[in-house]
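Minimal example, chain plus 2-acetamido-2-deoxy-beta-D-glucopyranose.
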Amino acid sequence: MLWRALLFLVVLVVVYGEVKTTEINFHGEPIVRISSKKFDRLSIIKMLSQCYEKMFPAANGHAPMHLGSGGWVVNDERSCIQDTEVSYYVKSIALNSKEYEASECRINLNQRYKAIVSPSLNIHEYIHMKDDSVLAHVESTLIEKFATMPKLSEFKWYQLSDLNYKLQCLIDYQDIGQVKLKEDIVEVELERVFDIPHSCGFNRYQKNDQSSIRFTDTQTVQIPINGTFYCRNGRSSTCNRSKADFLYPHYKLFED
Ligand SMILES: *[C@@H]1O[C@H](CO)[C@@H](O)[C@H](O)[C@H]1NC(C)=O
Ligand SMILES: *[C@@H]1O[C@H](CO)[C@@H](O)[C@H](O)[C@H]1NC(C)=O
């Protein structure tokens, strides 16, 4: 099918500064397949519930997703979990940057001293903590595949071990400020194809109640390359006066 062929002709824009395009063809193959062969029951149920909530939003009067009475009715839970398969296809890959909040947003209410904000302890680990084993697997598979591809194999991932945690950002009287973490990332847009057997009972809102269901959505995975902390003084999308902390400040211990 033409759309499938087009889908897997992935265009990649890479290299700092100069822009180059390379075509990567995954030959229409999924990059990852998730099923109960490799993943535990809870991971599969979690994916099924994400899918259910997108297909049948509670806002449209559908029963909420929970096993048991009043919710999602599974025809046969065992076969539902065993026969569900989710395939991930790469749609696009792009080099991008992203910013995170790396400290509290602070206002200085002291006329005599500058306030100091520094990066919160181990903030980069919190930012990249993976509590989703499927997503963690997808990411590590992508990193493995990239190692064999032109351009992408040049990147070193997660170079975040020598971030400047000693950074001190100074905030003037009545000013606000925050430490931000800016990262260069590779953003991978994936198409997720859910193949859900009849035994899962997802068909109950559909005319044909006997068939299996295929549902497709997209998911984005952002893989960091490197990063830098920097001081962001003044208002930003994550820091404003009404939100700013003023209790327990650290001060620069001299008058300006
Ligand atoms: C990542 O490393 C590249 C090359 O050394 C550098 O130009 C870029 O500024 C770094 N990006 C960040 C967000 O630190
Ligand atoms: C300040 O930021 C908070 C949270 O980010 C937001 O809800 C609020 O609308 C913002 N207020 C102003 C005045 O921009």
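DSSP finds five helices and ten strands in the chain. Confidence is low (pLDDT under 50) at residues 1-23.
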